[in-house]
Structure formats: structure tokens, C-alpha cells
């Protein structure tokens, strides 16, 4: 990439920070911005330019990655709905690597094209540890030329990139994968709770789980966290609930039943209500424990 036209990266949170660091460490010229300025310091030390604001990122970069929490945050940095939107996006490729509703993404695609920009969906599957290791999986959708330009840029962040066709197929693919993740972690939490309440040796439980066909990277990370009561965040309860709602919304729009997802939605909402929105999604076990305590009472 021409160092005079660095890659732009906006959003340096739990996922975005390590993703951008992997780009910088791989030698990718970067210009970055984050609303909370202290999160930019690690990128500055790694050699990235730190912009004063989003508009500066758009001025300097041809391709701009957004790793933001929701559509409102994306609209704010893009200036969508303001006179600055066209200037920010015209002649640029905007890459959406977060998770929003497919409807939002479809509308953004239309607006970006109308303003003379290009758009690539590139949501990723994985949490903080895969982000730190550069082992995310990206799903890409958009016009062929833009996707071809963006795909090789994702190498330092992603060990696999999968082409999904037109917008919003990448986000729909991400939601399908998230449905499996959410129900898997919730089922694992119920399994751990069952073993604990029956007084089983939890070390043996982890050995049996890890040695069998149900073992997976998810179970090998989340089960020990549940047993140790270590709920340091990799993907938060609040984020899992947000994703749950997005999947449920897409299911409802397509008139699909989602019985397991609906139970998970209730449990994650209960975990938030118990006061643990910022803990890791493994903390959904707290809601299951609370239900058991209610049964005991």
C-alpha cells in the first residue's frame, strides 16, 4: 500500500484495538481514530498516525475500516445525514467489520453508492483472543472490485476470508454463526451448572469435556472461565445480547422459528438485569444459577 494513502481504521475497542495493532505490526501504514483517545496510544507507539477526528481519517485514506458498536456510531463518524457525508465517503471504500442489522447495512450500501463511495461488508467471527492472535474469520460481501481490493488487506487480522456475494449476505452469515455461538455457550453454561450442583469434580468434568467430541475452541476457553468464575471480558454479556437481538430480528423478518435463541435471549437479558452487562458472555451461567436459586426458594 502507498504510504501516502494509509489504511484508515476507526474504532479501537475490545476487538478493534488488537485488530488494528496486528495491521500495524505487519507493516500496514495506518491512520486511526477512536472516540476515547487513550485507546489510540498503543497504535501510536506501533507507528500508526493518530487522527484528530474521523474527517481526518477519511481525508488521508482511500480504504477506511469501521469497527464500531452499532449503526448510530457508524452514522456519527461517517457524518451520514449531514453535508459532510459526501465529502467523507466519495471516492473511498468503506469497510464495515462490526455487526449491525442486515437492514441497516443494506441502507448504508445504497447511501454510500449514491454519494460516490463503495461499500464492503466484512464482519468477523471471533472474540478478543482470536483478534489478538490474528485468527479471525471474515465474511465479505459487496461489489466485486471493492471486495478484491479489500480482501488482501485483511490478512494480518484474519486467517480466513470467505466471499458471501452481495450485501447483506456477509452480515446474514455472521448472524447465522452467532446463533450457533450464543446457543452453544448457553448450553455449556447449563452443563457446567448441572455438574456443579451435583457436586461433581469440576477438574474431571473439564478433562472429560476436553477429551470428547464436544470439545472445541469455545468450550476450551469458556468452560474453564465458568468453573473458575473468571468473567474477564472477551465478548461481553451486553454484546451477546445485542447480537441475540439482531439474530432474532432477522429471524422474525424471514418468519423463522428460533426457539433456542429465544431462551438464550431471556437468559442474557436476565444476566444484564442482575448487574453483569460488562462481564464475559460466559457469565450467562449467573442467570441459570439465579433460576435454580428461585426454584430452591
Q: How do you describe this structure in short?
A:
The protein has 297 residues and is α/β, with parallel strands linked by helices. 53% of the residues lie in helices and 12% in strands.
Q: Characteristics of this structure?
A:
297 residues; alpha/beta; 9-stranded mixed β-sheet; 53% helix; 12% strand; globular
Tell me what the structure shows.
The protein starts with 6 loop residues before the first strand and ends with a helix. It is α/β, with parallel strands linked by helices and 297 residues long. Strands 1, 2, 3, 4, 5, 6, 7, 8 and 9 form a nine-stranded mixed β-sheet that branches. The protein is globular. Helices cover 53% and strands 12% of the residues.
Biggest sheet features: 9 strands, mixed
The secondary-structure class comes to alpha/beta
Order of helices and strands: EHEHEHEHHEHEEHEHEHHHHHH
Radius of gyration: 20 Å
As residue ranges, the low-confidence spans are none
What coarse outline follows from CA principal-axis ratios?
globular
Mean pLDDT across all amino acids: 96
Tell me the helix content.
40-55%
Taken as a percent bin, the fraction of beta residues is 5-15%
Describe the secondary-structure layout:
Layout: E1 7-10, H1 16-25, E2 30-33, H2 41-45, E3 49-50, H3 54-60, E4 63-66, H4 71-78, H5 84-89, E5 93-96, H6 102-114, E6 118-121, E7 124-125, H7 128-133, E8 136-142, H8 144-150, E9 158-163, H9 169-197, H10 202-211, H11 217-228, H12 237-253, H13 259-273, H14 285-296
Parallel strand pairs: 1-2, 1-4, 2-3, 4-5, 5-6, 8-9
Antiparallel strand pairs: 6-8, 7-8
Amino acid at each position: 500500500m502507498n504510504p501516502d494513502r494509509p489504511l484508515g481504521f476507526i474504532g479501537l475497542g475490545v476487538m478493534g484495538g488488537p485488530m488494528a495493532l496486528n495491521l500495524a505490526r505487519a507493516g500496514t501504514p495506518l491512520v486511526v481514530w477512536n472516540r476515547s483517545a487513550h485507546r489510540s496510544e498503543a497504535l501510536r507507539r506501533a507507528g500508526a498516525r493518530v487522527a484528530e477526528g474521523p474527517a481526518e481519517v477519511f481525508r488521508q485514506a482511500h480504504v477506511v475500516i469501521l469497527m464500531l458498536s452499532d449503526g448510530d456510531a457508524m452514522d456519527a463518524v461517517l457524518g451520514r445525514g449531514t453535508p459532510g457525508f459526501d465529502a467523507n465517503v466519495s471516492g473511498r471504500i468503506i469497510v464495515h467489520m462490526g455487526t449491525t442489522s442486515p437492514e441497516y447495512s443494506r441502507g448504508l450500501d445504497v447511501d454510500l453508492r449514491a454519494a460516490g463511495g463503495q461499500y464492503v461488508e466484512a464482519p468477523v467471527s471471533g472474540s478478543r483472543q482470536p483478534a489478538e492472535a490474528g485468527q479471525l474469520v471474515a465474511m465479505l460481501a459487496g461489489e466485486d472490485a471493492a471486495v478484491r481490493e479489500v480482501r488482501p488487506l485483511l490478512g494480518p487480522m484474519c486467517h480466513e476470508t470467505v466471499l458471501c456475494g452481495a450485501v447483506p449476505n456477509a452480515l446474514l452469515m455472521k448472524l447465522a454463526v452467532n446463533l450457533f455461538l450464543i446457543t452453544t455457550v448457553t448450553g455449556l453454561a447449563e452443563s457446567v451448572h448441572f455438574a456443579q450442583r451435583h457436586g461433581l469434580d469440576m477438574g474431571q468434568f473439564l478433562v472429560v469435556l476436553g477429551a470428547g467430541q464436544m470439545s472445541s475452541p469455545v468450550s476450551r476457553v469458556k468452560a474453564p472461565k465458568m468453573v473458575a468464575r473468571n468473567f474477564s471480558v472477551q465478548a461481553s454479556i451486553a454484546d451477546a445480547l445485542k447480537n441475540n437481538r439482531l439474530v432474532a430480528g432477522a429471524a422474525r423478518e424471514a418468519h423463522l422459528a428460533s426457539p433456542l435463541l429465544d431462551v438464550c435471549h431471556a437468559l442474557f437479558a436476565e444476566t444484564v438485569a442482575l448487574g453483569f452487562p460488562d462481564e464475559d458472555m460466559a457469565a450467562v451461567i449467573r442467570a441459570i444459577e439465579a433460576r435454580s436459586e428461585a426454584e430452591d426458594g
